[in-house]
Design brief:
Number of strands: 0
Number of domains: 1
Largest sheet: none
Strand content: under 5%
Low-confidence stretches: 50-64
Distance between the termini: 43 Å
Helix content: over 70%
């Protein structure tokens, strides 16, 4: 039982790290796929040019999915930069908890974790709201008919950002703070959110 419980805890720590790395890796790939889909759409529109925007049956040709690349890339990289401190903290806490290290090594890791949080957490609070604003512009400038996951992802990102601001400025009653903090810092929620973002944009791409 103890081994199974430890495996679950290790998976809970590694899952958001793997998904975060996957999100960083798939950003340029999705952008390239999106460029190809735009070229295909442009070729399709040129082929249909003699119909003057209509098909032979007289129905208006529907536009395909289209995303604003600049705002999408900007929001994605801002989210990555904003949450780098969170990923580092999860990684170092996991190493300290589940690896047989010397007490001095664990103490060094704890001090380094505290140091990086002291210096990087300010960017977490500044860049996440900025990334959210750009993500909203990205949503408004884009169209998606294949999946509703991007819309749901934006909704949950908005909720997470506001939960973080509520935690930071302590604007909620005391009896709610522990629940909000736990929800905002949950590795499972973090993993699910990244998964929704990645899968939604891969479907669109």
């Amino acid at each position: 039982m103890t081994a199974t419980r430890n495996c679950r805890k290790i998976f809970a720590i590694l899952a958001p790290l793997i998904l975060f790395a996957f999100c960083v890796w798939t950003g340029p790939v999705a952008a390239n796929d999106h460029k190809r889909s735009e070229r295909d759409q442009a070729r399709y529109e040129r082929m249909k040019k003699h119909y003057d925007g209509e098909n032979p049956e007289g129905r208006r040709v529907k536009r395909g999915d289209k995303g604003n690349e600049l705002t999408g890339q900007t929001a994605a990289w801002l989210f990555v930069a904003a949450n780098l401190t969170v990923v580092l903290s999860i990684l170092m806490k996991g190493v300290n908890s589940y690896f047989p290290l010397e007490p001095e090594t664990k103490s060094t890791i704890r001090r380094f974790n505290q140091l990086q949080k002291n210096h990087l957490m300010r960017f977490h609070y500044l860049l996440n709201p900025l990334a959210l604003c750009i993500a909203i512009f990205h949503f408004l400038l884009s169209s998606c008919r294949k999946s509703s996951l991007p819309e749901w992802s934006l909704l949950f990102v908005t909720m997470m950002v506001f939960l973080g601001l509520m935690t930071k400025f302590k604007v909620t009653p005391k009896w709610m703070r522990r629940f909000i903090y736990g929800l905002h810092t949950s590795p499972a929620v973090f993993s699910a959110l990244i998964l929704m973002l990645v899968v939604g944009h891969l479907i669109v791409g």
